[in-house]
Design goal:
CATH topology of the largest domain: Rossmann fold
Order of helices and strands: EHEHHEHHEHHEEHHHEHHHE
CATH superfamily of the largest domain: Crotonobetainyl-coa:carnitine coa-transferase, domain 1
Strand order of the largest sheet: 2-3-4
CATH class of the largest domain: Alpha Beta
Strand content: 5-15%
Largest sheet: 3 strands, parallel
Shape: elongated
Number of domains: 2
Length: 306
């Protein structure tokens, strides 16, 4: 996940370490920190301090719950923030029992929002501070469920209804997303179950479709559904991703990170491997004017790791 980065390890609890950090900031464009609120200030690397060193610095803080409120100083991980944001609402689960999400929505979501905020300032050529909380990033992903709930209806894209669900075939699973009327009708016709057309929001129809799909292999079911223009796809295991023909066609090889961005028809270049902690400390410090002897002495005193 750190492919293509360089790693410098500095002890910010030491005055010499903070001085090194400040020297790096003078020639930097962006600082991103992920400490609990208040920690950066204690370490002397908060925005107010750094903007006096480089007034064009773009500074982004990513934290758990935001910088104010009763939860602001609490430790947290993704599961905690998505829970607060309502993504684990028992009513969203078919059996009424909340379960951990299998992906890190708040972690990834807050990172993407960080990029948006940072680019906003960079593109305007001004310095400033961006704050992103993981809790609020998770809340963003819950927008549709919240809107439906506030309007007095039950969130419908949760796997409780037949038109948006995962179904088991003889040799695996498929996903079905027949939300619009035309897709739902196509699904029913594909399976020879026109009698279900009026039951799109009937939870009991899930069992009906489950029995139908159990008659087919994944390949058979998908061929049938695709021939009727129904949104459907296979459920891949992580180990089998490298065998999916669509992923292969898009450049995924089952080993390297696939950059999801295409810019002018090309993906940004290969990132390289992830560095070990402090692997590039020496070269980075030499770039800002330190001698090898100075660097060795800093390492001996525990100011840096090289």
């Amino acid at each position: 996940m750190n492919a293509g980065k360089r790693s410098i390890a500095i002890n910010l609890k030491m005055s010499e370490g903070r001085e090194l950090f400040h020297r790096l900031v003078r020639s930097s464009h962006v600082v991103i920190e992920g400490f609990r609120p208040g920690v950066a200030r204690k370490l002397g690397i908060d925005y107010e301090t750094l903007k006096n060193i480089n007034d064009k610095i773009v500074y982004c803080s990513i934290n758990g719950y935001g910088e104010n409120g009763p939860y602001s100083g609490l430790p947290n991980h993704d599961i905690n923030t998505v829970g607060v944001a309502g993504l684990l609402d028992p009513d969203l689960f078919d059996d009424g029992v909340p379960k951990p999400l299998t992906v890190q929505v708040a972690d990834v979501g807050s990172a993407l929002l960080c990029v948006i905020g940072v680019l906003n300032l960079l593109l305007r050529g001004v310095g400033g501070r961006v704050e992103v909380s993981m809790m609020e990033a998770a809340l963003l992903f819950n927008t549709l469920n919240m809107a439906m709930t506030y309007e007095g209806s039950e969130p419908s894209l949760t796997g409780k209804y037949p038109f948006y669900n995962v179904y088991r075939c003889r040799d695996g699973y498929i996903t079905v997303g027949a939300i619009e009327d035309k897709f739902w009708q196509g699904l029913c016709r594909a399976l020879g179950r026109e009698d279900l057309i009026g039951r799109q929001f009937d939870k009991g129809a899930v069992d009906e479709l489950s029995r139908e799909f159990s008659k087919y292999t994944v390949a058979e079911a998908l061929k049938l559904l695709w021939s009727h223009d129904v949104p459907a796809a296979p459920v891949n295991s992580i180990k089998s991703l490298g065998k999916d023909l669509q992923l292969i066609a898009r450049g995924f090889n089952g080993r390297d990170f696939l950059n999801p961005l295409l810019i002018n028809g090309a993906r940004p270049g290969r990132q390289g491997r992830a560095p070990r902690l402090g692997e590039n400390t020496v070269e980075i410090l030499m770039e800002i004017g330190l001698s090898r002897d100075e660097i060795d002495k800093l390492a001996e005193r525990g100011v840096i790791i090289k």
